[in-house]
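User:
Can I borrow your eye for a moment on a structure tokenisation matter? Would you put together a sequence-and-structure record for a protein of your own picking? Please set it down just below, with no commentary around it:
AI:
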Amino acid sequence: MKTKTYILIVFLFTSVFGLAQVKFEAKVSKKKLGVNERLRIDFEMNQDGDNFNPPNFQNFTVVGGPNQSVSHSWVNGKRSFSKTYSYFLAPKRLGTFTINQATIEIEGETYKTTPVSIVVTKAVNKPKDGNNAEYIASENIHLVAEVSKANPYLNEAITVVYKLYVNPNTGVSNWREIDNPKYSDFWSQNIDIKGLKVQNGTYKGEDYRYVVLRKTVLYPQKTGKLEIEPLSLDITVEVPTNRRDIFGGRLMSQVHRTISAGSRTIHVKPLPEQGKPAGFTGAVGDFDFAVTTSKEKLKASESLQLQVKVFGNGNLKLFELPKVSVPSSLEIYEPEHIENVRTNLGGMQGSISDNYTVVPQYKGKYPIPNISFSYFDPKTESYKSVNSNEIIVDVLDGPTNASSNDNIASTAANKQKVIMSNDQFAFVKTETRFVSKTPKHFFKSVGFWASLLAPLLAIPLAIVFRREKEKRDADVFGNKIRKADKLAKKYLSEAKKTLGQKEAFYVALEKALHNYLKAKLHIETSDFSKDKIQELLRSKGVETTVVDEFLELLENCELARYTPLSNVEMQQDYDKAAKTISLIDKQAK
């Protein structure tokens, strides 16, 4: 009995002793450092564990890690184990900060480290020691931002090229971006770089190798002094040491270093007021301008495409095309905006166009006046204007205008009534000597009478159909309503197909809403004001909440080009449009 008790006591003591031996602690390389220095923190444990959770490292930037290392050793028959998670941290600002607890699970138990307090002081002077790896790295690697022009005009393209210079005796094994420039006062476009190409160059008169890390095109949107924010990188630098391997080769040491291109300041000049054309909308660059039509002769029941196009090099996405003015007898629909623009180091290049659908209502010749397009050329520092030619649209066939109602009435009065005679179908023989050679006789069968009477019945039906067609063709107002309704369904369908493509989706949705208003409220494009739409919908008995939702959709379409939107928001706008149109159809009287 005593022996059993003794064994139990030894077992419990051994278990408690074993549990007490679990260690999990945080060790730092220093507790006081300058804001320009690095801190290493190791989370060590003497038994293997799972589900390691580091602290959030608030007030520090993780520039390296986590690096994991495991060590096994046997000394005098005793096994020792060590597992470490290492991080390299860079302080964000001055002050006293606490690195909170990390946690780990070991054999079902959760262990925590003790919080560590760190003091961050002002930048310290690092020793200029030729044998110090960090000093060598700081002197042999540089990040430079090259700006193409320091004093551009408003909306004139400039480029920023970020180059990483490395001394031939030093290497870079890895790098990642820490802080990216926001370019808040610019329209910006990054240019894709396919593969990094090492090139030879010079930095401050010395031979260096360099790679181009990023190319960005900027169009300043404000005048005055603007700052280009710096690009910062965390780089793993391979620095040569004084040690050599067994073959005599110099060993390399890895050093983590944060480098920055520094901020750059540019001075943006305003566009001159002297000589600015009245119709200037902000185009800056070198452009050509054209207005064309798909046809110049057509019938009233047909349509033509009118294109207003600007092409060249400049801020193509940042200005509006001039609007088209046509005679009231030409029905013109909201344009389809098309952009075919590519961006390189020279800025935006390509074309933008507005494509209008034009439907004539009456017979006649109608002039489309010339259109003027103005832009500022930064090379000559002057404004230029381009005028299109006047286009004559010749409508060859169709109803005449209301001014010719007297002629139409007199023509109708001169028409004579067609008198139907009794023997007009005398040529049709109602008796036949047809003899069928088959057992079943065709004469006086259902097929016989159907074959006989079908042509007689088709004549009055053809007459009625033709009259209805003429009446429908003459109904210009009704045709416009039907065409608008058809276009609304077409563009709503196009909007559904382009979900995920922001600009194409909202262009199609806006056209669908406008054409629906034309069909439902019988109003023209020129009458599209929010107050007018609100007044007409309410007069037809549509609820206020439904009217507000419809106006909100129109506003979303107008603002979509200038605001970032997700696919979820586009789907919500599409569903709201379909629901709102359905409610208006039910409520409108």
